[in-house]
Write a structure and sequence with these properties.
Layout (H helix, E strand, L loop, with lengths): L8 E5 L3 E2 L13 H10 L5 E6 L2 E6 L1 H10 L3 E6 L4 H14 L5 H13 L4 H8 L3 H10 L4 H4 L10 H8 L5 H10 L5 H25 L21 E7 L6 H11 L3 E5 L2 E7 L2 H43 L5 H16 L8 H5 L8 H8 L3 H11 L5 H16 L15 H11 L5 H29 L1
Parallel strand pairs: 2-4, 3-5
Antiparallel strand pairs: 1-5, 3-4, 6-8, 7-8
Length: 465
């Protein structure tokens, strides 16, 4: 305010003074205490106002004006300033920023208002005592439309970093809404990284497509077959995706492999050869027989997995409440560690990201606890604050593991299957007795994990030689 200060002080009736319509601070808050103080001691600091016809508008002192009106104060001392619209907004923004009275979103809109009135980025930065990057970031965030801002009631509480990330996708409100909904949660960074990855993939495929349509590249670009694995003319011969290389490298690799044709399928480039229909018929017959055998095995495995899960959860439901508290506390820690600490170097990120899904393990928790689904969450929250919290903690942690286990995890070495032996060991320590069928499947899984680890160790040794 110092550059816009005036020595002219005048007593003006509060009935002639209006709040400034462009005041950056949209919510002046409760002024009851301030009104009581003014009623007792009077207004100690003059308002700063600008003429507005026969009335005046506040530049500095919106809260004091509201408090004076609430206190029934008549005339109040005011500095009379002569400012154009840009100077008025600069003065209000400067005052509020110096007192840290604006939310980030209010500051964002105020700075954009200054720029709209003709101020330069450098001038705004100078007036606020901030860097040019500080001003540019807020100008970017100001582009976020009301449709996106309305996604959540507390949108004004988002950080400038979150607002800039949302503003980056200007013109794509669907993505902006996803980010706005995730802001302030543990999912924000994950959501942003997925959107950034998808955006990079989209840009990559657009660049590849632009190179493929060039007439002199010698590559036969065809429409993507509707049924890529059973097209009567083309046989699928592989694909290339963003991690394969840059768009220019992809074109060179396609020339090296010299496929009969290529097509664009989502964010991938499919390679095609011509079909040999006689050989294809024989292969198709073999494939059908193999698929039938796989389907039969999968059906049997699904039946086993479902029966095994039912047996485990029925045992947990029937026995957990009879186990001693110290054993349950130990089990809580072991189940938690089993889910958090990963025996696989690749990590458990994809699995952990689903924990924000409200349905994650809900059905299994209902089965184990015996509580109706509509009451389960309320009961859980209540009991976790009670002395019997341990049995409820075991139930929810076991339910999460049960939720993750799919039939294929019994035959494939992956993040989840590596946890199954440890989960069974915990259950057995609680008193659970696996059937002979479970023990057989468990032995086969452990053997597969051991073999996979051995192969990985041998590969590491060869790479280190």
């Amino acid at each position: 305010m110092s550059n816009y200060q005036s020595n002219e002080i005048k007593l003006i009736n509060t009935s002639l003074i209006d709040p400034h319509p462009d005041n950056p601070r949209k919510n002046i808050g409760d002024v009851t205490d301030l009104a009581a103080s003014i009623k007792t001691n009077g207004l100690l600091t003059p308002l700063s106002v600008v003429p507005n016809g026969e009335r005046y508008m506040v530049i500095a002192g919106h809260r004091r004006l509201a408090a004076c009106k609430q206190a029934g104060t008549g005339a109040v001392p005011c500095f009379i300033l002569q400012l154009d619209p840009l100077q008025q907004l600069e003065a209000m923004v400067t005052e509020n920023c110096q007192r840290e009275q604006l939310t980030v979103l209010e500051e964002v809109d105020a700075i954009q208002g200054m720029l709209d009135l003709g101020a330069t980025t450098a001038n705004v930065a100078y007036r606020l005592g901030r860097s040019a990057d500080y001003v540019r970031d807020r100008a970017k965030a100001a582009s976020i439309g009301n449709e996106v801002r309305a996604v959540r009631d507390d949108f004004s509480q988002l950080t400038i970093g979150q607002l800039v990330a949302i503003a980056r996708y200007d013109g794509r409100p669907d993505l902006q809404k996803r980010l706005a909904q995730a802001a302030g949660t543990s999912n924000f960074d994950y959501t942003l990284s997925r959107i950034e990855r998808d955006d990079r993939d989209r840009q990559w495929i657009e660049s590849v497509a632009a190179l493929l349509v060039e007439s002199d590249n010698g590559i036969n670009l065809i429409p993507d077959p509707e049924e890529p694995y059973s097209d009567p003319e083309w046989r699928y011969a592989g694909c290339m995706f963003p991690s394969t290389g840059t768009p220019e490298e992809i074109i060179e690799k396609i020339r090296e492999q010299n496929p009969a044709a290529v097509s664009i399928h989502m964010e991938q480039v499919y390679l095609w050869t011509r079909r040999d229909k006689t050989a294809d018929a024989e292969k198709e017959a073999r494939r059908a027989a193999e698929q039938a055998e796989r389907d039969a095995r999968r059906h049997a495995l699904e039946e086993y997995a479902a029966a095994s899960a039912d047996k485990r959860m029925a045992w947990l439901h029937a026995n957990l409440h009879g186990i001693k508290r110290d054993k349950l506390i130990e089990t809580t820690a072991r189940l938690g560690l089993l889910q958090i600490i990963d025996p696989d170097p690749q990590g458990y990120t994809l699995a952990l990201s689903t924990w924000n899904d409200a349905a994650c393990g809900g059905e299994q928790f209902t089965t184990i606890s015996g509580i109706e689904p509509e009451r389960a969450l309320a009961e859980l929250r209540y009991h976790l604050d009670e002395p019997d919290w341990a049995v409820w903690a075991v139930q929810i942690l076991a339910a999460r593991i049960e939720w993750f286990i799919d039939p294929t995890d019994w035959t494939t070495v992956n993040d989840t299957s590596r946890r199954i032996p440890g989960y069974y060991q915990i259950l057995q320590d609680l008193g659970y007795t696996p059937t002979d069928d479970e023990t057989s499947h468990l032995d086969q899984l452990i053997a597969a994990i051991t073999e996979a680890d051995s192969d990985e160790n041998e590969e590491d040794e060869e790479n280190n030689q």
